[in-house]
Amino acid sequence: LESEDTMPLPTLHPGERTCLERGHARGLTIHSGSWHLEYGRGAVATTLPFAMVDTLLVSLEFESVRRSTVEFTKLVRRRRK
Known about the structure:
Distance between the termini: 37 Å
Number of strands: 0
Radius of gyration: 15 Å
Structural class: mainly alpha
Number of helices: 2
Order of helices and strands: HH
Shape: globular
Oligomer: single chain
Strand content: under 5%
């Protein structure tokens, strides 16, 4: 992934959206009381290890990783039944 974008992203208001070109990445700050929808292609299970490593090594949010792992495991088990 590459990103030469150094300018800050504009503030988005309800109903507005942004899109990145393929192969580019940007950081995102989600403030309390807000939410975002992220679209990706491919099997979600294959992206989980990358997300967990990033969360562990960059932000050190161990509780977030634990909660995500528990939730993912519940969903996988429910799907198998």
